Amino acid sequence: PSIPRHTNRLINEKSPYLLQHAHNPVDWYPWGQEAFDKAKKENKLIFLSVGYSTCHWCHVMEEESFKNKEIGEIMNKNFVCIKVDREERPDVDKVYMTFVQATSGGGGWPMSVWLTPDLKPFVGGTYFPPEDGVHRVGFRTVLLRIAEQWKENKEALLENSQKILEALLHMSEIRVQAQESPPPAKEVMATCFQQLSNSYDEDYGGFSKSPKFPTPVNLNFLFTYWALHRTTPEGARALQMALHTLKMMAHGGIHDHIGQGFHRYSTDQHWHVPHFEKMLYDQGQLAATYSRAFQISGDEFFANVAQDILLYVSRDLSDQAGGFYSAEDADSYPTTASEEKREGAFCVWAAEEIRALLPDPVEGATEGTTLGDVFMHHYGVKETGNVNPMKDPHQELKGKNVLIVQCSLELTAARFGLELGRLSALLRESRRRLSAARAQRPQPHLDTKMLAAWNGLMISGFAQAGVALAKQEYVSRAAQAAAFLRRHLYDPTSGRLLRSCYRGKDNTVEQSAVPIQGFLEDYVFIIQALFDLYEASLEQGWLEWALQLQHMQDKLFWDPKGFAYFSSEAGDPSLLLRLKHDQDGAEPTANSVTVTNLLRAACYSGHMEWVEKARQILAAFSERLQKIPIILPEMARASAIFHQTLKQVVICGDPQGEDTKEMLRCIHSVFSPNKVLMLADGDGAGFLYRQLPFLASLERKDGKATAYLCSNFACSLPITSPQELRGMLCP
């Protein structure tokens, strides 16, 4: 490799995204005091660029502008340039994204924002082309104009930035209004269901025409809505909407049929042509959602998809120390000889490649049929490529095919005169060959940063799949990852979480010189993961840690005046706003998940002030929940659970006993969104017995494993029959 011409301060960072920019001619600084001091001392504006390592347009802007020597000179002369990885610093990202969305009506990455030396934003946008075009002003022009403005109109700019900040503060505030009580859950659920139903695509599933995102928060809302309205037509429709969406996604090109796992989103209505990056948070949430779909429907199809996701994560996103990596890039070199990367190159196929890999004649099929014919028919492969040119503006996929299942196994079998079992075997063998061929291609970049929050989501995925699919190895993998978090992303002396760690040289796990402290979402998703892991493994140590973290979360992030939790802690002078996020998007927002966490924590500890906090969060978001619950489906779901009150399902029994295991299997086979499971093993000195004195009064009936359904710590009569228990869990 040639020796790089330029090296800037990002060379000392650990984030793969920052390291990608370490050899730009731009004199980049990481976010921090050194850059802020330089801006103040030299009285220079700051140019802030925010992105992440698997962001396609971030790569484009780097290639066009940040690697351009002349543009680099303009940037270095007039600005202090700061690069931020939004996955490391979601707090910084959110403050300035709030500004960009408010002033330009849109947002996204790369985000480009110009700040005064005291960090107040005054101009912002996303991607800029390098030079002026017909419809867009170029990056070079914008840089020169802003530098000119600062010279000529400094006072006006400063005054304006102060006004902007005040408006943002006012606009972004979420607090309890006078009414102080949570909104009525029945209405919130009904409105959210109606809004989802109105935006539902009857043909292809999903909740928009295009682009289409795999929003697990919507599907989880629908499952809970169904569970609470099983006998009504609306309940049936909710379940149908969720299951149809999951089926269409699994058949679509958004699902990697050869390499497993799911891509980020689909650019079209049919789930066909995706943006090809694969994110850990999608895999974690989708593994849980497909497992739930199996639990509800009993259809093996959904169990297979969950296993497919977990295979991908175990193989491609797992660190040997137990943590999970963040993402895999969309762009890669088509061949080892290629000069430039292309989006999707690792995943797409030309028809002749497939024919060459699958030339075998298929015995018993219609005369002259090859394996390639069967495979190409089933996966929608066309000789000239199956990608609509409208969905491929840069012609990167011309002549290529994105695999999509276009007809059922039954139809393909009938078309070629094959029996189903035989067809499945032929397709399996074909996928294996394509997989081996694909392994020879240059791999996309892997972002080996390990984030606490996303690891939490993935642990929940493994734990919930382990329970629903009755696979102990998934529960063990979840426990291994939780132990990793405890070892590498938790400081036992302070009791606090850290945000991130990194794969270092020789596969060691490294920490940055100044570790980034955990944000609200890190606490919330890990607490959720630990509750899920306890229910799957019944190891009380995970519960104990979850409750300690919940106390710490309260201390660092709770807003005692306006209620609910801030996303970041107080006391960072470089953060202009302490925000509360108010949308369940690709990931659920932390305040939504924490409502259910708090209710579960109260059930395991008897601390009723946690129920009160859950009530106060719902009150703080009351107006949004009543008007537009479709932007907060996870919080709408939590509001129903809050009003239902959680059922404590207590099993008194020996954890190793067959009768106890049978009771647990029964509980795990039922989708019951408002249950909390605990095992009373008779050890009075154990953590749960110390927390919950009422457990001491529950006993095994006739020496058999016995279940009790308790609400607010008052319990039903003892149940020793799994069938009877199932009846009580599915009213």
TrEMBL record:
It comes from the Eukaryota. Residues 7-168 form the Spermatogenesis-associated protein 20-like TRX domain. One of its GO terms (biological process) is carbohydrate metabolic process. Pfam families: Thioredox_DsbH (PF03190). This is SPT20 protein.
